[in-house]
Write a structure and sequence with these properties.
Elements: E1 4-5, E2 9-13, E3 16-21, E4 23-24, H1 29-32, E5 35-37, E6 39-43, E7 58-76, E8 79-86, E9 91-95, E10 102-106, E11 121-124, E12 127-130, E13 137-139, E14 145-149, E15 154-158, E16 164-168, E17 170-171, E18 174-175, E19 179-184, E20 190-194, E21 214-219, E22 222-228, E23 237-242, E24 248-253, E25 258-263, E26 269-276, E27 283-285, E28 291-294, E29 301-305, E30 311-316, E31 319-320, E32 332-336, E33 342-355
Antiparallel strand pairs: 1-4, 2-3, 3-6, 5-31, 6-30, 7-8, 7-33, 8-9, 9-10, 11-12, 13-14, 14-15, 15-16, 17-18, 19-20, 20-21, 21-22, 23-24, 24-25, 25-26, 27-28, 28-29, 29-30, 32-33
């Protein structure tokens, strides 16, 4: 699986530089069918030039997945590999340069055997699928993989010997509904969001025990609620990430809002304020503090926003025609490659890669 791309044509229009390219390549669905909307990089501010080159290209690393999510780069010597969830397949895949795609972990988000009564249902292209696998992935300071096992309704750690340790499955004695996205601070504090997507029927499920969606802190074996949608119905926390200096925590709320919180010395948060009127799913920051938001204001978008909240530009993922209909909607992203300048984007049925000029934050041990 994979593909190549053509160099973009550069067009100046209304003071903006719009860089377009259509992906092509043998065996690629994007290459075999016409693009209803081509891949584009929309430059809204000159500062974007320091982040992504005018001739940046889009690499198609894989397609025909159920619903990709939660990528994380694992550094290994002078190289490394990417892990990412396929939520519908209930596996974590491993992608490495020059190697076939392989399964890294089976039953990554649901370790049971009866899928008739678990996992929310959604649409991927024309297909109705179940969200039964893992979602967010990250590393702790010791380099161990931390997983939001959404349908098991737990946050787990994968030990070096392959065993799984449950880090949290309840708050005040009540089970989570479906841990979603996750980030770990350098001191080991874990922040994650909990949504209803681990439940059949989602918010209408009789198995729901916590009557709200929230975001939480795991520290010293204890779970603390940091915020929720109790007072703001519909503003469900989903994406979550930290600034590179760990002074701020970003959390999305519903579709079209991202809040920024001050991180206090005890790792709790305060002073939540609307950062941008955009954002829905996974987010990451680069080393300069720029925020990369998936599903920013419309399906198929990745916004790049400065630390001051200025929208610098938008990456528009390609949308194609033809059957079977794919669903190319960014769900999350991760920085990777040995220099941290590779941007990996999970987009439901696809996995993409773009080289940047700015390095991003890589979780795990300090390098």
């Amino acid at each position: 699986m994979g593909g190549s791309v053509r160099r973009p044509h550069t067009v100046k229009k209304l003071g903006l530089w719009i860089l377009s390219l259509a992906a092509a390549g043998s065996g690629s669905l994007i290459g075999q069918t016409p693009a209803a909307k081509p891949f584009q990089i929309v430059r809204l501010d000159p500062a974007l030039d320091e982040i992504i080159a005018p001739d940046a290209k889009l690499d198609v690393l894989g397609e025909h997945f159920g619903l990709t999510e939660g990528p994380v780069w694992i550094q290994q010597g002078r190289s490394g590999y990417l892990l990412f969830s396929d939520n519908a397949a209930n596996v974590i895949y491993k992608w490495a340069p020059g190697e076939p795609l392989s399964v890294f972990l089976e039953k990554s988000g649901y370790t049971g055997n009866d899928v008739k009564n678990v996992g929310a249902q959604t649409i991927s292209g024309r297909l109705a699928i179940l969200l039964i696998g893992s979602n967010g992935l990250t590393l702790d300071p010791q380099g161990r993989l931390i997983i939001t096992a959404m349908t098991d309704r737990t946050v787990v750690r994968l030990e070096k010997d392959g065993t799984r340790t449950t880090l949290a499955d309840r708050y005040n004695g009540k089970r989570f509904s479906g841990p979603n996205d996750i980030v770990v601070k350098s001191d080991g504090a874990i922040y994650f969001t909990d949504t209803v997507f681990g439940l059949r029927g989602a918010d209408a499920s009789p198995a729901r025990e916590i009557p709200y969606s929230g975001f939480y802190l795991i520290k010293d074996g204890k779970v603390a609620l940091l915020g929720s949608d109790q007072d703001h119905p519909g503003e469900i926390p989903n994406g979550i990430t930290l600034s590179p200096d760990e002074k701020y925590l970003y959390v999305t709320a519903g579709f079209g809002k991202t809040f920024r919180y001050d991180v206090l010395p005890d790792d709790t948060v305060a002073n939540g304020k609307l950062f941008i009127p955009a954002g829905n799913d996974g987010m990451k920051t680069d080393r300069k503090g720029n925020l990369y938001s998936t599903n920013a204001v419309a399906p198929g978008e990745v916004w790049i926003t400065s630390p001051e909240g200025k929208h610098l530009g938008t990456i528009l993922m390609p949308q194609v025609t033809g059957e079977p209909k794919p669903r190319i909607v960014p769900t999350n992203l991760a920085f990777g490659d040995p220099d941290g300048k590779g941007l990996y984007i999970t987009a439901c049925t696809h996995l993409f890669h773009i080289r940047l000029k700015t390095a991003g934050i890589l979780p795990g041990p300090e390098r």
